[in-house]
Amino acid sequence: MGILYNQVADQLQGLIHEGVYRDGERLPGVRQLSRQFGVSISTILQAHQTLEARGFLQARERSGYFVRLPTVDAPEPVMRRHRSRPVPVSAREMALDLCADEQKRMVPLATAIPHPDYLPLRQIQHSTLWAARRGLETLDYAFPGKESFRRQIAQRMATLGVPVTPDDVLATNGAQEAIILALRAVTQPGDIVAVESPSFPGILQALEVVGLKVIEIPTHPSEGLSLEGLQLALEQWPLKACVVVTNHSNPMGAQMSDERKKQLVSMLAAAAVPLIEDDIYGDLHHTGDRPKPAKAFDRADNVIYCSSFSKTISPGLRLGWMVPGRHMASARQHKYFVNLATSSIPQMAVAHFLEQGGYDRYLRSARQHYREATERMRTAVARAFPEGTAVSRPQGGFVLWVQLPDGVSGTEVYHRARAEDINVAPGLMFSTADKYDNCLRLNSANPWSERIEHAVARLGVLAHDVQSAAR
């Protein structure tokens, strides 16, 4: 019997290698396989267990067995230590091109937007219809935010160790507006602001909108912002703010430990430099408990907390919030002058979704989807890309930072991929200087398919071609 189930396991493994059963697909049921191979159900189950031990299958409770190709590992990117000087910010045209490309039928590996299959569409549609029937409640400006929405946010913040009242919360049009309002509340045009390097392009664009200069601080792919680098910047330059994605940063996926968050908060409070915290990926941790925000360690009211539901519920809702603390009056004033208020119906719909418990139920499945998706993408990149390629190992979120071997231009790979309708984010977008040319950011938040698999393999071929041409 032992020989028999090993034979079945070998045959199934061969079918997986041949692409009959693809990575992420569910195997046929045990009864069907029993008939197909002419063996007992117990033999099929033993074969499944053997393939699971080999790393080719993953059992999911009440769902069956799914193909999961063994991980091919790649090293993490290295943290680049560099001396920076404050410079004006100029958003790159390619960032706008990438947003426009998302409307085309390109393979969507560039922008950090979840595929609709990973979003709670049915639930949020139900809540939106519920909100739309509220009549006059939907027609007011709802400044500084619908009370029901701000109350739900206050309740969630309390679970993160940040006790606030609804009056402490300001509703915004996404986290992007929250960051811009925070910057306007604590800076003047021409001031210097510290950011992670590489940094999310949206943060760089926010700095440009406000007319600020930026100094880039080296960032470790796992540990996050270099506190040593930040300390040097504090000693050398008159910083007016520091913007950090503390949990599962974009693009590297770094998560600062609680101890490093405490040090960050303490360091900036001692220097009287406000910390603007972007926690948009905090709810998307892959395993374990939800990481605390830096705001949970703020004893000096020096942290302005910003977040949104764009990465979890829907990017199209454009619904975020901020907890400005002592800067509330200034943030409210800038919000009122810019667009008066955030739309009422999305606030009411999300408040209803949260109150009914749908959000937490959704997050449990979303976290598993994103963990599996990033692992699968990371393995595919390690297989297809040139030797010496390094890939980040995020513990949350759904983006990967790919560092190509020296001399291989990620920008050139981007241009060649775009010509073949494959959309990726080149590393140059994530810095104000000409850094990270040999890097790419990939969005993993897509159901695995033949189209995605082919696109990643094709990116590997293009990277090999660029490497050969550079020699």
TrEMBL record:
Q: Which Pfam families match?
A: Aminotran_1_2, GntR
Key words of the record: Aminotransferase, DNA-binding, Pyridoxal phosphate, Transcription, Transcription regulation, Transferase
| Superkingdom to which the source organism belongs | Bacteria
InterPro entries from the xrefs? Aminotransferase_I/II_large, HTH_trans_reg/aminotransferase, PyrdxlP-dep_Trfase, PyrdxlP-dep_Trfase_major, PyrdxlP-dep_Trfase_small, Tscrpt_reg_HTH_GntR, WH-like_DNA-bd_sf, WH_DNA-bd_sf
Gene3D superfamilies hit by this protein: Aspartate Aminotransferase, domain 1 (3.90.1150.10), Type I PLP-dependent aspartate aminotransferase-like (Major domain) (3.40.640.10), Winged helix-like DNA-binding domain superfamily/Winged helix DNA-binding domain (1.10.10.10)
Molecular function terms in GO for this entry? DNA binding; DNA-binding transcription factor activity; pyridoxal phosphate binding; transaminase activity
**What range(s) does the HTH gntR-type domain occupy?**
2-70
Signal peptide residues on this chain, from the entry's feature table: none
Q: Which family does it belong to?
A: In the C-terminal section; belongs to the class-I pyridoxal-phosphate-dependent aminotransferase family.
Quote the protein name from its UniProt record: PLP-dependent aminotransferase family protein
